[in-house]
Here is the input.
Amino acid sequence: MSTTFNKFNVFVQDMANGKHNLGSDTIKVALTNVAPVASNTVFANITEISAGNGYTAGGATSTQTSSVQTAGTYRLITGNVTTTASGGSVGPFRYVVVYNNTQTSPLKPLIGYYDFGSNVTLNNGDSFSTNFDQTNGLLSVT
Here is the structure.
């Protein structure tokens, strides 16, 4: 992925308070065309694009392939997520938001997001892949 991961401020606090078990919690990837704000805390703060035509409300699950610490650096490596427009268009969207769908207190805490720099609209049959770094991970904590 060529864009930079931007963490939500609350993610650091949530990690310190044990709100995430990134190795086993369900991590989801949602699409929005409204710029996330670093002070957002839960998924309900995000204005998600409309569901339909191949996009499911709440986004898609990104399956963890590795959750490991080496020499004091933790990396969460997850599979890529692909959205394919079917029966119409999807979007526009510009931001891919990563959140924890497992946690209920707080409900669906935010982790971070990627800004693709311009609007993306998928026409019928088009696909968009969020390709997470398979070496450094979706995120690294040092």
